[in-house]
């Protein structure tokens, strides 16, 4: 796939900006500026250099970070949409949910909060929740052994729609 010049530039710059060496260089520049203070008699120009530099870098980084965040969020939404689409029994109405207005999102959120509360109540009453391991409110050493055995059993459990799990 081809990327436009800004995407290539922002990918490269955000990759560089996120490295430890970049942080060390930034700290070194601040130290050099601070040490040079007596040489310039802590003048207004000396202070203006660091203020202007940090303001410009911060201003530009806001756009770079936002661009990177937008791209990452879009990619994650596509992946989540594909998971929803591919799972049998999933609610396809949840595809592209991020495009809904706040009122509709609130309606969906309330419904899923209600479903979560019902599931917790069912578990507390001794029932089961689909594809959920047993959850016990109390914790003691005897339960640790059971939890490890449950975890070993859980990863082999068949999916709720009866399809075989693919192993890589």
Task: Give an overview in words.
- This protein is mainly α.
- The chain folds into two domains: 5-86; 100-154, no CATH class.
- Helix content is 65%, strand content 0%.
- It contains five helices and no strands.
- The protein has helices at residues 5-17, 20-35, 44-86, 102-124, 141-154.
- The two termini are 27 Å apart.
- Mean pLDDT is 78; it is low at 132-137 and 145-168.
Task: Summarize it.
With 168 residues, this protein is mainly alpha-helical.
> What's the number of extended β-strand segments?
0
Helix percent reads 55-70%
H/E element string?
Answer: HHHHH
Contiguous low-pLDDT stretches (5 residues minimum) are 132-137, 145-168
**Morphology:** elongated
Which class best fits the helix and strand makeup? mainly alpha
Comma- or semicolon-separated keywords:
168 residues, 2 domains, mainly alpha, elongated, 5 helices, disordered C terminus
Could you give the topology of this structure?
Blueprint: H1 5-17, H2 20-35, H3 44-86, H4 102-124, H5 141-154
Helix pairs in contact: 1-3
